[in-house]
Amino acid sequence: MAKTFDVKLKRSTIGCTPTQRRTIEALGLKKLNQVVTKTDTPANRGQLYKVQHLVEIIVKK
Q1: CA distance 44 to 35
Q2: Which fold, 4-59?
Q3: Largest CB tally within 10 Å, which of 16, 31, 54, 59?
Q4: What are the tens digits of pLDDT across the range 2-55?
Q5: Residues in CB range of 9: below 8 A, 6 or more apart
């Protein structure tokens, strides 16, 4: 079974660059405090690295 983690949008995208906004949308986040579950892949890790100041990552075991 693949490892997963939860991603929670903690800060608004107002004032962010357009690429950061598109990354948040690509992760499936639309509203503040919304939580989505993602698999642990290199692509998802790259997206989270780009917007790490906007999200909170909750690692599942």
Answers
A1: 15
A2: Ribosomal Protein L30; Chain: A, (3.30.1390)
A3: 54
A4: 799 999 999 999 999 999 999 999 999 999 999 999 999 999 999 999 999 999
A5: 24, 29, 31, 32, 33, 34, 54, 55
Q: What is the pLDDT of residues 29-41, one digit of tens each?
A: 999 999 999 999 9
Sheet holding 35-39, edge to edge: 35-39, 4-9, 55-59
R_g over Cα of the chain: 11
Which pTM was predicted? 0.89
Crossing angle of helices 42-50/18-26, nearest 10°?
140
Q: Which residues share a beta bridge with 39?
A: 4
Q: Where are the alpha helices (DSSP H) in 1-61?
A: 18-26, 42-50
